[in-house]
């Protein structure tokens, strides 16, 4: 047996829990797991779409073309209209998955905001990919500020249709995914102008390319915006209209409509949140699993990588060093919390989805707040984790062959897209303050995952140093503090908006993140209580390490309030070290419970059988097209006597 294979096998032998029991929890249900495994198998067995070591030497055009080929083949094997079928693929492919925007954003928006007749008209064509539609909301000049979008859709009473127009460069739609090449339709958000009055921003289903030639229709200017940080295969595009006429039925009309020359509204105007929820839940559900990929690579490599000798004059595996454990194991613990939160959020969004279809909006705001909190926190955490995993792999972590840099690049955009993170946090903070106001007059309105506000007195009086209690206490103290500061400043004559923008902004961001951390703790505990007894101990250790790391990273509130002493803080650090020691022998089992194949990991340093040095040398010498193509002519022109140096 190869020495590094032996090291991994010895590490597997030390794992004391059945990994398959964790696998069941990680994937939520058998259908999702079986689909995930099938997708891994299809991608690995199809030569034309198998992940390739030389991928990052390819040009962007070649990568985009290959991504379309992958989509075509996967469409033959899986039902891509089912989120549980295509969502897992986001973590398996090299590059981003085409049609994810169309299926993950536009279709839900059509279902939420369109009438049944409209969905029946267009919906089936998405399933056959006769229609691929971008979600065209963001403009060059406006992103999160949706209410000030500039694109106009002016109702023409003479022809009973709309004139779609881009009045300025800042009004050009910019950044929508799948708009550059793939989409033949776009869900365009525009200001509806009716009888000369602005009726607000509304969605319009608009054909932008010819069904036969796929060329832009007259009056439509559309294309790809160019290379970006990450998402190299996603054809983010630009879109402008020149007095482009679209039929009356283009306006998604479940909640607003124009009939007999009259404009009317029906239902909750904030329903547009519902369609955005689907894309945000996918960010929370999928991308922590990409962090799990980077952790799998880093932990396997940390076992096979041996550096410096111990007392026995034997080289140590890097994972034996406490500093390496400190880099990786708290993030592994958080990863489990993130994944469980993603599963719970899928349930919350699905419940809200069915309620909204029945015009029940009772859970809309709380679901939006939870999603916003977890989207902001998880997306930044995933990027940071990929970077820490890269650093933990030393020099080889820099190589694309490690598989980690691509995870960083393909997750970094999530910090901004589908809601810029600071904007998301501010929306969470606004809802937390609203829920706090319910306590005195309408306590029955406080949702379950926000019911900590109903127990403020008990929380403040509780002297326990239980980790969950301290997380709740930190959140409670910060919320009370920011609410008091707003009230005190308003008594001086300052406006609420001025206070929000100039006085408490940093505190608002902090309390929103504290909520995300506390929500994750609550869900973590729920999953532990429902887990098989054989894995409860290791899950509780993970939850304790997660909670403790959160407390150690943000202790100021507890210290300033006098709720923990210096001695207690020292004890927390000692407890953390103990947990690192307990979880180190379980680490390999914890990452291998995700069941990523070597092809899915796209790595040569974190393979199931080890051999990092052999694989990285093989990929560099046999798979690297730069070497295969020979010496470039430019090198010959540069070297030798062809340049006369100036002395």
UniProtKB/TrEMBL annotation:
Residues 273-433 form the Acyl-CoA oxidase C-alpha1 domain. Keywords: FAD, Fatty acid metabolism, Flavoprotein, Lipid metabolism, Oxidoreductase, Peroxisome. Pfam families: ACOX, ACOX_C_alpha1, Acyl-CoA_ox_N. One of its GO terms (cellular component) is peroxisome. Belongs to the acyl-CoA oxidase family. PANTHER family: ELECTRON TRANSPORT OXIDOREDUCTASE, PEROXISOMAL ACYL-COENZYME A OXIDASE 1. This is Acyl-coenzyme A oxidase.
């Amino acid at each position: 047996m190869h020495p590094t294979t032996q090291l991994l096998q010895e590490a597997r032998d030390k794992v004391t829990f059945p990994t398959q029991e964790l696998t069941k929890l990680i994937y939520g249900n058998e259908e999702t797991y079986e689909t995930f495994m099938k997708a891994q198998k299809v991608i690995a067995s199809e030569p034309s779409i198998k992940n390739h070591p030389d991928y990052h030497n390819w040009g962007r055009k070649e990568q985009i073309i290959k991504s379309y080929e992958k989509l075509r083949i996967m469409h033959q094997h899986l039902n891509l209209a089912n989120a549980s079928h295509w969502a897992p693929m986001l973590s398996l492919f090299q590059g981003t998955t085409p049609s994810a925007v169309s299926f993950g954003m536009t279709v839900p928006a059509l279902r939420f905001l369109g009438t049944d007749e409209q969905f029946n008209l267009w919906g089936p064509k998405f399933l056959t990919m006769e229609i691929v539609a971008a979600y065209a909301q963001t403009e060059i000049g406006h992103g999160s500020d949706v209410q000030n979008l500039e694109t106009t859709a002016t109702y023409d009473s003479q022809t009973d249709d709309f004139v779609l127009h881009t009045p300025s460069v800042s009004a050009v739609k910019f950044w929508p995914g799948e708009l550059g090449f793939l989409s033949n339709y776009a869900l365009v958000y525009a200001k509806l102008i009716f009888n000369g009055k602005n009726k607000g921003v509304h969605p319009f289903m608009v054909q932008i390319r010819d069904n036969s030639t796929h060329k832009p229709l007259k009056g439509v200017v559309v294309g790809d915006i160019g290379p970006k940080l990450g998402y190299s295969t996603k054809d983010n595009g630009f879109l402008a209209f020149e007095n482009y006429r679209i039929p009356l039925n283009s306006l998604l009309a479940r909640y607003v409509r124009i009939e007999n020359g009259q404009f009317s509204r029906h239902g909750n105007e904030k329903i547009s949140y519902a369609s955005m929820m689907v894309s945000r839940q996918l960010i929370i559900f999928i991308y922590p699993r990409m962090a799990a990929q980077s952790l799998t690579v880093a932990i396997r490599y940390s076992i096979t990588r041996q550096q410096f000798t111990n007392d026995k004059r034997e080289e140590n595996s890097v994972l034996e060093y406490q500093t390496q454990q400190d880099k990786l194991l708290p993030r592994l613990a958080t990863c489990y919390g993130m994944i469980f939160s993603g599963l719970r959020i899928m349930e919350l969004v699905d419940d809200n989805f069915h309620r909204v279809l029945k015009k029940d909006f009772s859970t809309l705001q709380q679901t939006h707040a939870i999603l916003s909190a977890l989207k902001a926190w998880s997306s930044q955490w995933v990027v940071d984790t990929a970077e820490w995993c890269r650093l933990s792999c030393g020099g080889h972590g820099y190589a694309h062959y490690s598989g980690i840099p691509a995870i960083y690049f393909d997750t970094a955009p999530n910090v901004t897209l589908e809601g810029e993170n600071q904007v998301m946090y501010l929306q969470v903070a606004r809802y937390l303050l609203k829920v706090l106001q319910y306590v005195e007059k309408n306590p029955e309105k406080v949702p379950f995952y926000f019911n900590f506000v109903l127990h403020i007195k008990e929380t403040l009086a509780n002297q326990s140093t239980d980790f969950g209690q301290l997380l709740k206490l930190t959140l409670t103290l910060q919320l009370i503090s920011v609410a008091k500061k707003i009230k005190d400043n308003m008594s001086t004559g300052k406006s609420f908006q001025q206070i929000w923008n100039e006085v408490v902004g940093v505190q608002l961001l902090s309390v929103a993140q504290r909520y995300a951390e506390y929500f994750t703790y609550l869900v973590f505990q729920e999953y532990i209580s429902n887990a098989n007894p054989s894995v409860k101990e290791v899950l509780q250790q993970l939850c304790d390490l997660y909670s403790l790391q959160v407390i150690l990273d943000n202790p100021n509130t507890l210290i300033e309030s006098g709720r923990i002493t210096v001695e207690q803080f020292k004890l927390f650090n000692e407890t953390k070290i103990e947990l690192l020691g307990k979880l180190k022998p379980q680490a390999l089992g914890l990452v291998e419970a995700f069941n990523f194949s070597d092809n899915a990991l796209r790595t040569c340093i974190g393979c199931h059988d080890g051999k990092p040095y052999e694989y990285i040398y093989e990929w560099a010498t046999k798979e690297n097209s730069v070497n295969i193509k020979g010496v470039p002519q430019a090198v010959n022109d540069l070297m030798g006597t062809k340049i006369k140096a100036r002395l």
